[in-house]
Amino acid sequence: MGRSKLHALARSLTLMASVGAPCLAHAADLLPPPPPPPMPAPVDVGGGWYLRGDVGVGAAEFDKVSTNLGVTGAVLPAGYTVTDRQQDDQFFAGAGVGYQFNSFLRGDITGEYRGGGSLHYVERFPLNGGTGIDTNSGKFRSIVTMANGYIDLGTWWCLTPYIGGGVGAAFNQISSYQDIGAGTAAGGFGTAPSKNTTSLAWAAQAGVTYDVTPNFKVDVGYRYLNMGHAKTGAVTCVNDPTCSLATYKVSDLTSHDVKIGLRYLIGSAGPAPMPMLAPAYEPAPLVRKY
Q1: With 50 as the cut, is the pLDDT of residue 91 above it?
Q2: Ramachandran region, residue 7 (left: φ > 0; alpha: ψ -120 to 50; beta: rest)
Q3: 181 with 149: CB under 8 angstroms?
Q4: Would you give the distance in Å from CA 194 to the centre of its chain?
Q5: What are the Cα distances from residue 183, in Å, to 129, 153, 236, 248, 275?
Q6: Structure confidence by residue, pLDDT tens digits, 149-163
Q7: What is the structure's pLDDT at 150?
Q8: Phi, psi angle pair for 214, to nearest 5°
Q9: Which residues belong to the signal peptide in this entry (predicted)?
């Protein structure tokens, strides 16, 4: 009786081993799961066209005045100097269109009108044993067109500092020019017609942008602007037959500008698209070995 029970138990264990063996073999034969595919590179969002407008004020100045006498053979007297150079502050307003290439680089083309900055300087020269003085003044205005590039340095709490530069052209005009004599030259008076001059312009700037919304931004910045040079028309003197028909070239016209502007990004400035997820792993087909 005991022997028959042992035989029955042995047969049961043998049957269980034969049933479980294929499963063990299958588990051993399975290949390890393949590595997941690499995640796609992050998409840099923010590219797109934008419109801008700016207003500001500039502390303007010029460095040099060159005098050219229009009468053949006429020369400037020894001791001739130009002093007291000064220029009134300018106001300006402009607009432009630009493109945000990525989160850090953008560029735009702008045009602006600058006015309100009259020029003043004094000529001093020996005359009749004394000193002749001519006070000169004229209205200065300019239209400046620039191609600008900017580097945005990152955004914190909706604030984005930036640096930039630009190059372009300045269309400068001197008008309402007057040359008034004083000292031993008292009584002399001259005027010159308006004169337009085109000159190279360049700028360097820095500022900060505040994101009011993803599409609407406020820009506050400083700019150093060089507008090149401007010229006057020939001065025609009143009651002076010896008038030299002088013209003047005002050089190194610069301005330290403070400006505020608005930028509007055209189109959507929504969040970045969701990254692609790796596909779910599917095991290989069941393979059994006998």
Answers
A1: yes
A2: alpha
A3: no
A4: 32
A5: 11, 57, 20, 21, 80
A6: 999 999 999 999 999
A7: 98
A8: -60, -25
A9: 1-27
